[in-house]
Amino acid sequence: MADDFERVLEQGMVFKGGPKGPKKEDDKVKTKAKKKKYITGAHGSGSAKQKAKYRQQRANRRSQHKK
Questions:
Q1: Residue 48 CB: number of other CB atoms within 10 A?
Q2: Of 27, 52, 58, 61, which shows the fewest CB atoms inside 10 Å?
């Protein structure tokens, strides 16, 4: 342990960077919750229909409209 400490003091620490190259961006929908039919409740699930109703109510609130 002491050898490591002295080596760090003498030589310094080396931090390796992240992977090089362009970052990949996925435009794919990864979860059911982001798919259009699920958001609107169109696929028949009662839970999805209820959630869609609440989303619509939230979108229609006065506080959500642009001024």
A1: 19
A2: 27
The values of phi and psi at residue 34, to 5°, are -95, -5
pTM for this predicted structure: 0.39
Rounded-to-integer distance, Cα 41 and Cα 35, Å: 10
At 8-53, the pLDDT tens digits run: 888 888 888 777 777 666 666 667 666 777 667 777 778 878 888 8
Cα torsion 38, 41, 45, 46 to 10°: value is 140
- Alpha carbons within 13 angstroms on the beta-carbon side of residue 52 total 17
CB 39 within 8 A of CB 33: yes
